[in-house]
Amino acid sequence: xxxxxxxxxxxxxxxxxxxxxxxxxxxxxxxxxxxxxxxxxxxxxxxxxxxxxxxxxxxxxxxxxxxxxxxxxxxxxxxxxxxxxxxxxxxxxxxxxxxxxxxxxxxxxxxxxxxxxxxxxxxxxxxxxxxxxxxxxxxxxxxxxxxxxxxxxxxxxxxxxxxxxxxxxxxxxxxxxxxxxxxxxxxxxxxxxxxxxx
Length: 198
Description:
- 56% of the residues lie in helices and 16% in strands.
- It has six helices and six strands; from the N terminus they run βββαααβααββα.
- The longest helix is centred in the C-terminal third of the chain and has 41 residues, at 155-195.
- The two termini are 40 Å apart.
């Protein structure tokens, strides 16, 4: 069995950084268990958990699950990694890039309008905008009601978007190469139909 740990601020500012310990069956490649543990206690907890898992918990084959949601979420994480890796030289995540591009495209929008445009709940969008605001990439202005504050890009964000566009295109080409033009069209069609389930 393989145990991988990664220290990270998994919960943004809502909880301290911790380690995600992943247990993988080397023989089958199956994901056996995921645990969030305090980094300082990672090794003893991982060792104890490994003993428990090996003795009592059967391996779970997450790769071949019939659950559409699980498969799409796995694919989304893999795809996110492709774009995050491409944008990493600028210190951007694809989620931040997408938000900045949407603000650039829509102009000054209220948080409510922006959340609707991006199909995000307001609290998630508010946290994401807050991160960009602290980085000096967006400005908030407006009245007393936070929901109606307008969001606009700073000059620094405009320059960053110009630098990021070729990196994003590089990731996009990688995906298009992997799927082919027809595969991308089929994917987009399937995703559009899934979004209609909301």
